[in-house]
Amino acid sequence: MDLVPALEEPLKKVLGPPTAKVMAEHLGLHTVGDLLHHYPRRYEERGQLTHLADLPMDEHVTVVAMVADARLHTFASSKAPRGKGQRLEVTITDGSGRLQLVFFGNGVHKPHKELLPGTRAMFAGKVSVFNRRLQLAHPAYELLRGDSEETVETWAGALIPIYPATAKLESWKIGKAIQTVLPSAQEAVDPVPAALREGRGLVPLPEALLKIHRPHTKADIEDARSRLKWDEAFVLQVALARRRHADAQLPAVARKPKPDGLLTAFDDRLPFTLTQGQQKVSKEIFDDLATEHPMHRLLQGEVGSGKTMVALRAMLAVVDAGGQAAMLAPTEVLAQQHHRSIVEMMGELAEGGMLGGAEQATKVVVLTGSMGAAARRQALLDLVTGEAGIVIGTHALIEDKVQFHDLGLVVVDEQHRFGVEQRDALRGKGKQPPHLLVMTATPIPRTVAMTVFGDLETSVLDQLPAGRSPIASHVVPAADKPHFLARAWERVREEVGNGHQAYVVCPRIGDEEDDSKKAGKKKSPEDEAEKRPPLAVLEVADQLAKGPLQGLKVEVLHGRMHPDDKDAVMRRFAAGETDVLVATTVIEVGVNVPNATAMVIMDADRFGVSQLHQLRGRVGRGSAPGLCLLVTEMPEASPARQRLTSVASTLDGFELSRIDLEQRREGDVLGQAQSGARTSLRMLAVIEDEEIIAEAREEAATLVAADPELEHLPGLRTALDALLDEEREQYLEKG
Prior knowledge:
The chain is α/β, with parallel strands linked by helices. Helices cover 40% and strands 18% of the residues. It has 29 helices and 21 strands. A 7-stranded parallel β-sheet has the order 11-12-10-13-14-9-15, sandwiched between helices. It has a 6-stranded parallel β-sheet with strand order 16-21-20-17-19-18, with helices on both faces. The protein has a 5-stranded mixed beta barrel with strand order 2-3-4-6-5. Helix 9 crosses helix 10 (218-249) and helix 10 crosses helix 28.
């Protein structure tokens, strides 16, 4: 974070090219500073050993243990037919459990000499199961003799740091590399102002780096961790505070709806009353729109909480005030769907300039990449003349040709699917910066919102509109209990028999040409474990139509279909002409067919928690209760299965997003997907460190208000530059 010349030194100069190459390729470490910020995952104590009983399957682990016994076996094999094959089996123990190591062939000689009973060593390898026992095959190892100069020096202190490592570079080699660069830590420039550091009792940065890599006591580790967590939270919050400060300086046109305009007419024709949540959030949005600075608001809510209604009312308010509003949707299916439902909700108010349109009416146009030339020309014309007050589109809206008469509000649906540049390009189409409303249907825990969308004000819709039905979710273990799967298809038939419809969701399409090419490659053991490819829409639809769902009208929908075909399929399904829609996740967001009551998700373990929650939100949208069946072949104890159980056990999206984050950690919270940059959070856990983030946010706001350019804090400026390399700066700017 705080890269200064000594810390900017490339690793290949310090450690030599081969090691530096592995560090760059496998760990993303390029400079001395990067390596110093590669913190130990945990520490082993000399007197205590890792709990072998708790080792995770299929992961690279490093354990410190003692050899209990070692036996050399000979056996016959195709390579050694005369019984000359050799296998060394070593059992290691830590008092809590035992673990078997195996070495084969010529690889047995060195360990046979070195791994004698009573020897202690660090072992690293991938945990697998053989004959129902855990084992490491051909692990790398480092003896802990405690007598020779080097080992004593390297393992000085009772705490042995265990680093996040890879098969190509074991933890102890990383440890040795860190010993080499540790002296440079003295030159690290401290980003946290001295007064703040002393006020909070934090140790200086060089000391924290020394203590995290070479602690003598557990207190050293605590000191270092609390200091390094503060750095990460504080620097990030300063970046966000500066962004908020800069945004507050921008001018925008205040948009106040006129008293008896479009919005009033729209509210009058609503057949229901808005929920309290919708009224509260609408007020927050209208207050923002009425100011002369651009609104930057994140609207998050449960699946089905009526976000589209809130967004539509904001768009109508802007049209009332003489501006235009644009809604950006991630897919064509969704843009068409939003267009249809908005036109439906508005009725004659959407027929501006047409016969039969109401007098306050405006035009609502849709703009997607696959439109015909004539329709497209008309839509563009309606935008530039201001005839169309509302436009809904995909990223086709961002093209240079698209011009607005007076763009006042941009609503981005499902923010996490939009590249940052795209949002920015659309914002650039206003004469002055337009107001921005970002909607996300994946609820985000408060801390994550503060960290990732810290420059947006947040509004939360947590009430479901009246008339929504509960959704029952169940895990269907297809491998352990095949009759459960048969029952799932019976349930689908029952729903259809009662006049309802169903979705079946699969992870892939099934017409991929490259499958045969991939087959040529040698498979790794992990691939073998995943034995079969994920289930595909085309195959599953075929099997269902000929088998368990014979006689029902089954159609398919996926992303590679021609947009007109997709639209036709969706229309038939919405009209109730199709009984069962077998689809990929193109239906994940915003698809609204109230008569669909059941959903079967095949290979549900291949989807993320928030994706499953999104998908499930497509059923139970009418008055009949919804049913969601999560089909998996994963064994009961596997993490994937536990994840599905948590999805089945709660409908609370905020709760699920916490579970999701705890499992995925926050590596991808900071939008690497969008910026390609490595996460800057090495030490901070967004969910656990809620208080630190909240405190850092306050400190950052105070500091930036007093010194927006950070003129008096060169160390902090350096740290910011390192955190916000170009890409990230862009990412945050457009967040």
